[in-house]
Amino acid sequence: MTTAALIVAAGRGTRAGGDTPKQWQPLVGRRVIDWTLDAFLVVPEIDRIVVVLHPDDAAHFAPPPRVEVTIGGATRTASVRGGLEYLAQCPDSAPAHVLIHDVARCCIKPSHVVSILRALEGADTPAVAPAVAVTDALWVGAADRVSGAQDRSGLFRAQTPQGFDFAAILAAHRAHPGAAADDVEVARAAGLGVTIVEGDDDNLKITYPADFARAGRILGHHMDTRIGFGFDVHRFGPGNHCMLCGVAVPHNRGLQGHSDADVGMHALTDAIYGAMAMGDIGRHFPPTDPQWKGARSHVFLRHAVNLALTNAFTINNVDITLICEHPKITPHAPAMQSALSAVTGVAPNRISVKATTSERLGFTGREEGIAAQAVVLLVKKCTLPG
């Protein structure tokens, strides 16, 4: 049994404000339509996804894989019918079920889509629709004055996606004489029974400018956060300075290594790789490769940062601890913060560089070398909820 999803995205949405229709406006780093489509793309039970666009928008939308496009009409009802007719072009491939969804409901969860589809498959009516019971007091008003009260018993706030037997809703739309508030109205006008299923308060429809902020809060709570930990050690040898977190710190000895032995940058680099489960410096820059001999450590760190950005992660904050008796780190910490900020793009006030001793214990206590540990938090704000 096949299922199609019809995403209605032909409206102009003038009440939402902005220079472009609301479905093309940005929201938490993406467009409204992108959030909506992803909720359906990840549901394996959906075989086809069709987006109904306004004629002016068709040239500006590059559909992702598995997404088809057709052109809508002058009203929402006309656009839905156009989408249904598009799906019906080849009777042999027409779906058994269709979910009809408003593109402006971009906070829909994939799990909610699945529950509506399951309800449709098990319902004794040819249609199901999610709704939330009205719990607020309802007034009747005129001229900015309350003129009466409305009983809220049995009242619901309708949502989408609304699910239908495809043949039944297609016939209902073909028979409907004009516009309708939604597809449940069309279905009921044709005598189809509609089962109410549980809605979701987060499944709001963006209508006014303030709705973008609420949708952003809902979507922004669903983030992929990764914590990475890095640790590195380098021994002392001949030299007159140590490279530490991008700063040449004067000292009577230097740190030894295949590169410039910046123990702080190495620990941070490994922390970023580790947060993404992408190994360590040695995997990306093998010490057996002579081209990296004497390399500046910012090359490694920048590579890790670019990998994070490529994978849509933002570095939220960094915490580095250098473990040594000497040299003294605190006087150079602000310069280290600035140097790390220049490489990573993270604001200096989100970068902590501090030091501790090992109380004269171990190799650091014997001043044989320096150790460093780093912790980093990566955040991806565009993962799909639910």
TrEMBL record:
<feature type="site" description="Transition state stabilizer">
    <location>
        <position position="258"/>
    </location>
</feature>
<dbReference type="GO" id="GO:0019288">
    <property type="term" value="P:isopentenyl diphosphate biosynthetic process, methylerythritol 4-phosphate pathway"/>
</dbReference>
<keyword id="KW-0456">Lyase</keyword>
<dbReference type="Pfam" id="PF02542">
    <property type="entry name" value="YgbB"/>
</dbReference>
<feature type="binding site">
    <location>
        <position position="266"/>
    </location>
    <ligand>
        <name>a divalent metal cation</name>
    </ligand>
</feature>
<comment type="similarity">
    <text>Belongs to the IspD/TarI cytidylyltransferase family. IspD subfamily.</text>
</comment>
<feature type="binding site">
    <location>
        <position position="234"/>
    </location>
    <ligand>
        <name>a divalent metal cation</name>
    </ligand>
</feature>
<dbReference type="InterPro" id="IPR003526">
    <property type="entry name" value="MECDP_synthase"/>
</dbReference>
<feature type="site" description="Transition state stabilizer">
    <location>
        <position position="15"/>
    </location>
</feature>
<feature type="binding site">
    <location>
        <position position="232"/>
    </location>
    <ligand>
        <name>a divalent metal cation</name>
    </ligand>
</feature>
<protein>
    <recommendedName>
        <fullName>Bifunctional enzyme IspD/IspF</fullName>
        <ecNumber>2.7.7.60</ecNumber>
        <ecNumber>4.6.1.12</ecNumber>
    </recommendedName>
</protein>
<comment type="pathway">
    <text>Isoprenoid biosynthesis; isopentenyl diphosphate biosynthesis via DXP pathway; isopentenyl diphosphate from 1-deoxy-D-xylulose 5-phosphate: step 4/6.</text>
</comment>
<dbReference type="InterPro" id="IPR020555">
    <property type="entry name" value="MECDP_synthase_CS"/>
</dbReference>
<dbReference type="InterPro" id="IPR026596">
    <property type="entry name" value="IspD/F"/>
</dbReference>
<feature type="binding site">
    <location>
        <begin position="280"/>
        <end position="282"/>
    </location>
    <ligand>
        <name>4-CDP-2-C-methyl-D-erythritol 2-phosphate</name>
    </ligand>
</feature>
<keyword id="KW-0808">Transferase</keyword>
<feature type="site" description="Transition state stabilizer">
    <location>
        <position position="22"/>
    </location>
</feature>
<dbReference type="GO" id="GO:0046872">
    <property type="term" value="F:metal ion binding"/>
</dbReference>
<keyword id="KW-0479">Metal-binding</keyword>
<feature type="binding site">
    <location>
        <begin position="232"/>
        <end position="234"/>
    </location>
    <ligand>
        <name>4-CDP-2-C-methyl-D-erythritol 2-phosphate</name>
    </ligand>
</feature>
<feature type="binding site">
    <location>
        <position position="366"/>
    </location>
    <ligand>
        <name>4-CDP-2-C-methyl-D-erythritol 2-phosphate</name>
    </ligand>
</feature>
<feature type="site" description="Positions MEP for the nucleophilic attack">
    <location>
        <position position="152"/>
    </location>
</feature>
<dbReference type="Pfam" id="PF01128">
    <property type="entry name" value="IspD"/>
</dbReference>
<comment type="pathway">
    <text>Isoprenoid biosynthesis; isopentenyl diphosphate biosynthesis via DXP pathway; isopentenyl diphosphate from 1-deoxy-D-xylulose 5-phosphate: step 2/6.</text>
</comment>
<dbReference type="InterPro" id="IPR034683">
    <property type="entry name" value="IspD/TarI"/>
</dbReference>
<keyword id="KW-0511">Multifunctional enzyme</keyword>
<comment type="similarity">
    <text>Belongs to the IspF family.</text>
</comment>
<keyword id="KW-0548">Nucleotidyltransferase</keyword>
<dbReference type="GO" id="GO:0008685">
    <property type="term" value="F:2-C-methyl-D-erythritol 2,4-cyclodiphosphate synthase activity"/>
</dbReference>
<dbReference type="InterPro" id="IPR036571">
    <property type="entry name" value="MECDP_synthase_sf"/>
</dbReference>
<comment type="function">
    <text>Bifunctional enzyme that catalyzes the formation of 4-diphosphocytidyl-2-C-methyl-D-erythritol from CTP and 2-C-methyl-D-erythritol 4-phosphate (MEP) (IspD), and catalyzes the conversion of 4-diphosphocytidyl-2-C-methyl-D-erythritol 2-phosphate (CDP-ME2P) to 2-C-methyl-D-erythritol 2,4-cyclodiphosphate (ME-CPP) with a corresponding release of cytidine 5-monophosphate (CMP) (IspF).</text>
</comment>
<feature type="site" description="Transition state stabilizer">
    <location>
        <position position="357"/>
    </location>
</feature>
<feature type="binding site">
    <location>
        <begin position="258"/>
        <end position="259"/>
    </location>
    <ligand>
        <name>4-CDP-2-C-methyl-D-erythritol 2-phosphate</name>
    </ligand>
</feature>
<feature type="domain" description="2-C-methyl-D-erythritol 2,4-cyclodiphosphate synthase">
    <location>
        <begin position="226"/>
        <end position="378"/>
    </location>
</feature>
<dbReference type="InterPro" id="IPR001228">
    <property type="entry name" value="IspD"/>
</dbReference>
<feature type="site" description="Positions MEP for the nucleophilic attack">
    <location>
        <position position="205"/>
    </location>
</feature>
<keyword id="KW-0414">Isoprene biosynthesis</keyword>
<feature type="region of interest" description="2-C-methyl-D-erythritol 4-phosphate cytidylyltransferase">
    <location>
        <begin position="1"/>
        <end position="225"/>
    </location>
</feature>
<dbReference type="GO" id="GO:0016114">
    <property type="term" value="P:terpenoid biosynthetic process"/>
</dbReference>
<dbReference type="InterPro" id="IPR029044">
    <property type="entry name" value="Nucleotide-diphossugar_trans"/>
</dbReference>
<feature type="binding site">
    <location>
        <begin position="356"/>
        <end position="359"/>
    </location>
    <ligand>
        <name>4-CDP-2-C-methyl-D-erythritol 2-phosphate</name>
    </ligand>
</feature>
<dbReference type="GO" id="GO:0050518">
    <property type="term" value="F:2-C-methyl-D-erythritol 4-phosphate cytidylyltransferase activity"/>
</dbReference>
